[in-house]
């Protein structure tokens, strides 16, 4: 079906061009013929003035010459176009060959005929379906435990604080409706970095508050769940974020983590919009400002949006001398320069590693150059390196999608 449609499109494109070339004819002979008849009319007037012919003879000659002149002028419409010249046939052959063969060769080198249609609506729907099927909170926690990757609090907990928390747990067993006690337990567990236990305690807070729970209460639960799995936004955490925003649409932590969830879903456009507003509205000492500033440059690059003012671009841009030198290069030399830059970035990442943004840029650059095999290999290596960093991995995965090496 694809090649049939491509052939039909090529035929529709070349037909008018070939027809114009075949139907074209030189007008030199027509113009010469018209000029000849006009000259004859002038000679009739000249002969009449010199007395060579009579007035009646002059009228008869004018009538005959005028008839022939009109006949010559109407000849293309009355008699049809004359046979095309050899040059026109050759031009038609060149045009058809260039359009059909050249287009076919170009698509064969750059295109992917086996790739199905990927309209934006379908890609967004497929992306949402994949995101909806992601692992649950408990599944990810179990995987982290099995791999020894569960988050751990770096500081040694104070024995006194630990003892007091144990006493509080014991007291709350007999006081399930003690809102202040459960709040105190959840907050202190979070301060000790015991995110899973803090999430469990926070669920008790929400149970007690029921319909009176605030957006901040649900944002606390979502934050504890996300931190418990190294930044992964599970369906359960996403549901808590939705509840937080339902109760308080401007809840800043819920907006930040919702942007993080969108980033992990491949919706960098939504992430950019959410984080940009937070960047503008929040005070500089807000805890979400540092992670936003460190990531929004890569998000802007992935979303094809401008880097916000005051945020360092993902990589230093080319200097004025570099741009001037690039302008003087031929297209082939320019491509070679890009390939050299890609090779340097690839070598550096292979030996020294680098942040997620550099891996994402390398994958996108390889996709632009048409080297999807290399882009796929880089994506596989990056996926292994950043397996324990869901946020970084989501940035790289979006670049792999842009390079068409992953769904």
Salient structural properties:
single chain
List the helices and strands and how they pair.
Elements: H1 2-23, H2 28-49, H3 55-79, H4 86-110, H5 120-132, H6 137-147, H7 159-173, H8 179-191, H9 195-209, H10 215-228, H11 235-247, H12 252-264, H13 268-281, H14 289-303, H15 320-327, H16 331-352, H17 356-368, H18 372-385, H19 390-402
Helix pairs in contact: 1-4, 2-3, 7-8, 8-9, 9-10, 10-11, 11-12, 12-13, 13-14, 16-17, 17-18, 17-19, 18-19
Task: Please characterize this protein's 3D structure.
The chain is mostly helical and 407 residues long. Helices cover 74% and strands 0% of the residues. It contains 19 helices and no strands. The model is unreliable at 77-84 and 316-320 (pLDDT under 50).
Distance between the termini: 23 Å
Computed over alpha carbons, the radius of gyration is 38 Å
Total number of helices: 19
Main sheet attributes: strand count, strand direction, barrel closure: none
Task: Please state roughly what percent of the residues sit in beta strands, choosing from under 5%, 5-15%, 15-25%, 25-35%, 35-45% or over 45%.
Answer: under 5%
Sheet/helix structural class:
mainly alpha
Which regions are unreliable across 5 or more consecutive residues at pLDDT < 50? 77-84, 316-320
Shape: elongated
Number of E-type strands? 0
Overall mean confidence score, pLDDT:
79
Helix content: over 70%
Which H/E pattern describes the elements? HHHHHHHHHHHHHHHHHHH
């Amino acid at each position: 079906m694809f090649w049939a449609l491509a052939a039909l499109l090529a035929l529709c494109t070349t037909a008018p061009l070939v027809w114009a070339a075949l139907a074209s004819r030189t007008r030199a002979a027509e113009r010469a013929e018209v000029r000849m008849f006009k000259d004859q009319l002038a000679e009739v007037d000249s002969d009449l003035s010199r007395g060579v012919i009579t007035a009646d003879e002059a009228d008869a000659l004018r009538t005959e010459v005028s008839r022939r002149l009109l006949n010559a002028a109407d000849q293309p419409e009355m008699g049809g176009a004359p046979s095309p010249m050899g040059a026109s046939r050759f031009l038609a052959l060149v045009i058809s060959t260039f359009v059909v063969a050249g287009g076919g060769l170009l698509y064969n080198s750059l295109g992917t005929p086996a790739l199905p249609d990927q309209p934006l609506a379908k890609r967004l729907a497929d992306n949402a379906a994949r995101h909806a099927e992601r692992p649950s909170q408990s599944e990810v926690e179990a995987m982290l435990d099995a791999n020894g990757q569960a988050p751990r609090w770096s500081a040694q907990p104070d024995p006194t604080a630990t003892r007091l928390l144990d006493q509080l747990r014991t007291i709350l067993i007999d006081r399930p409706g003690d809102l202040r006690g459960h709040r105190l337990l959840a907050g202190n567990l979070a301060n000790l970095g015991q995110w899973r236990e803090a999430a469990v305690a926070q669920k008790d807070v929400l149970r007690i508050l029921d319909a009176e729970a605030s957006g901040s209460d649900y944002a606390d639960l979502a934050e504890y769940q996300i931190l418990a799995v190294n930044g992964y936004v599970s369906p359960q955490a996403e549901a808590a974020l939705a509840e937080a925003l339902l109760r308080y649409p401007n809840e800043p932590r819920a907006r930040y983590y919702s942007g993080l969830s969108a980033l992990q879903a491949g919706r960098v456009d939504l992430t950019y919009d959410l984080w940009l507003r937070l960047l503008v509205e929040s005070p500089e000492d807000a805890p979400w400002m540092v992670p936003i500033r460190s990531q929004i440059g890569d998000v802007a690059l992935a979303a094809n949006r401008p880097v916000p003012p005051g945020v360092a671009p993902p990589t230093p841009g080319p200097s004025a001398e570099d741009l001037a030198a690039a302008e003087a290069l031929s297209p082939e030399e320019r491509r070679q320069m890009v390939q050299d830059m890609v090779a340097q970035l690839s070598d550096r990442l292979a030996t020294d590693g680098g942040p997620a943004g550099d891996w994402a840029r390398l994958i996108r650059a390889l996709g632009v150059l048409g080297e999807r095999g290399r882009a796929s290999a880089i994506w596989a290596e990056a996926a292994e390196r950043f397996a324990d960093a869901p946020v970084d991995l989501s940035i790289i995965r979006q670049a792999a999608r842009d390079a068409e090496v992953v769904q």
